[in-house]
Amino acid sequence: MYYYIMEPPSTRAVRQTYQKLRDLLTNLGIAGEMMAASPARTPEELAMMGLERGYSTIVAVGGDAFVNYIAQTIIGQAVLGIIPIGEAQQSAELIGTNNMKTAAEFLKFRRLSTFNTTTADPDSLIFLDAVVEPPKLAKVSFVIDGKLRGYAYFNKMTVTRNLEIKIESQHLVEPKKILGLFSTGGTVVKSLSQFHGRNVRLTTEPDLALLVDGRPVAKTPLQLRLNPNSLKVITKRGSIL
Amino acid sequence: METNGPGTTVGVNVALSGTLKDQNDISVFGMVEGEVISEKSVTIGQTAQVKGPVKGELVTIAGVVRGAISASEKLELLETGKVFGSISTKNLVIHSGGIFVGKCEMPTGEETVEEPEPDSEIESGDTPTEETLIPDEE
Known about the structure:
The structure holds two protein chains of two kinds.
Chain A: E1 3-6, H1 12-28, E2 33-36, H2 43-52, E3 57-62, H3 64-74, E4 79-84, H4 89-95, H5 100-109, E5 111-120, E6 124-126, E7 130-132, E8 138-144, E9 148-154, E10 156-159, E11 164-173, E12 177-178, E13 182-183, E14 187-196, E15 199-205, E16 209-212, E17 215-219, E18 222-235, E19 239-240
Parallel strand pairs in A: 1-2, 1-3, 3-4, 5-19
Antiparallel strand pairs in A: 5-6, 5-18, 7-10, 8-9, 8-15, 10-11, 11-14, 12-13, 15-18, 16-17
Helix pairs in contact in A: 1-5, 2-3
Chain B: E1 8-10, E2 14-18, E3 20-22, E4 26-28, E5 31-33, E6 36-38, E7 41-44, E8 49-51, E9 54-61, E10 64-66, E11 69-77, E12 82-84, E13 87-89, E14 92-94, E15 99-101, E16 104-105, H1 130-133
Parallel strand pairs in B: 1-4, 2-5, 3-6, 4-7, 5-8, 6-9, 7-9, 8-10, 9-11, 10-12, 11-13, 11-14, 12-15, 13-16
């Protein structure tokens, strides 16, 4: 039997969706224990309760940030099921559907895929892409696997569960003035970098928050570590991704 | 099975030092001081400056490299490319405008044929005549 944890409903429409989901899961014969997170009971606390009660599959019902919180708590202890609702684009891509009914059917067929995750020390998990977006161009210094050091300026930095670091920047180079009067017009310099490793140290100036779907999961400086094949998830097709 | 990553790209505003090694493709548009090693292709873009050895299967240079380059399959130096260092490759293409200052080694797989030793040493005073240098006509 599955243990479902639902994100606190933000609107009446979402509340109604949850009611439909209950009916759907009952009809599929996979209705289990359903818990709704709230300010009094965080998703992490509910996930811990599910583990203590011996559930081997915990289903996160909600958006990307919510799914990431649940994954962080149950990694290595239970299989993760996902029913994407709301802002859940990454979760939907990961399991292979953004449709609630189809996602529920995937749960019934229970095909497992194994995913890498990344730990941001001390205890934050990156299962879905996490981003750092400073308000203006910022500097990041990094050390990859202890043998490659570097720095870059960025507007957006993404850290994936495979410990890939994508650094994007776009800035205007000041125009040159001719005879102190006429400018030649500035040029926009775009830069995209991509690295990957197993252990990465990231430091930004200034310190910045790492966000999953707009919610903070960690803050720089970050020590990131790859956890290969560490999380089992119910998806459309069983595989190791 | 986890892949070995999607490759590495060093953007134009990135500076690196150390060993940049990847099993997949590497593209450099920024500055690298150290080794650049790939089991596949290495592309040094027009804005790139690399100070150190570059090793790959297929190496394309449009920027500046100061160091030895080894390409197991092919090395292409584009018109904007500058190489100051030795090159080792089976297949070399240098486009018009490309600058290469250094030594080039091209392993062909053929054994080097050494000059055969003469049967008998020519004693001093014995100057070979014109007849001895012309092969016998059959």
